[in-house]
Amino acid sequence: MENQYEVLHQECLSCQKCPLAQTRNHVVFGAGVSNAEVVFIGEGPGENEDLQGQPFVGRGGALLDKYLQAVDLSREKNIYITNMVKCRPPQNRDPHPDEVANCIGYLSRQLEIIRPKIIVCLGRIAANALIEKGFKVTKQHGQWFEKNGVFMMGTFHPAALLRNPHNKPDAFEDMLALQKKIREICDHTYDGTEL
Ligand code: URA
After folding, report:
1. Quick one: which atom of ligand 1 is closest to the CA of 43?
2. Is the CB of 46 under 6 A from ligand 1?
3. Residue 24 is part of which domain span?
4. 24 domain residue, yes or no
5. Is residue 176 part of a domain?
6. pLDDT score recorded for residue 38
7. pLDDT of the residue at 190
8. 156 in contact with ligand 1, CB cutoff 6 A
9. Strand order through the sheet with 145-147
């Protein structure tokens, strides 16, 4: 499994499948534990992520880490985080559908290797691609959708929470719903935590 993951990672690092390859500084493949039962999926790298090669390391990432910590989750300990596209769209624009289509093979293979029980979509782009077309985060956040035995939820993107802090209580409720679902269906996510 480690090996399969590393092979895929190396392949992705040299990807030239779409024009985003020309403007990137780093491919942002993903971060976290390889046996994660819970995977978070964002949209695409921003400026800080592109410079560092790691997902969610800017202001949004710091906010995400706080929400994770509140329910005993962290990328160092028990989850995995990645994005729909692995290279930064210029000026942080939404990734184009063809860029998502070119990149989704990497995500599918990451998920085949990690085999999570729960997927949390951070924001509209991931929720629309992975849960259902037309998914409205403000209306459908926190709801569970079961697909091929995997439980999926869409919630607010951390950058959207920085812009609209009034949604923070709803985002926190979603994390509590996630914590409940983890306790119901996960085997080892909360092993060794104080819960
Ligand atoms: N926004 C995302 O969607 N992903 C990141 O990795 C950083 C910011």
Report:
1. 3
2. yes
3. 2-185
4. yes
5. yes
6. 98
7. 97
8. no
9. 31-32, 80-83, 38-42, 118-122, 150-155, 145-147
CATH number of the structural domain spanning residue 150: 3.40.470.10
Number of domains making up the chain: 1
Residue 90 lies in a domain: yes
Residue 151, domain member (yes or no): yes
| Each residue's pLDDT tens digit, 13-44 | 999 999 999 999 999 999 999 999 999 999 99
- 83 CA → ligand 1 middle, Å: 7
Q: What is the mean pLDDT of residues 165-190?
A: 98
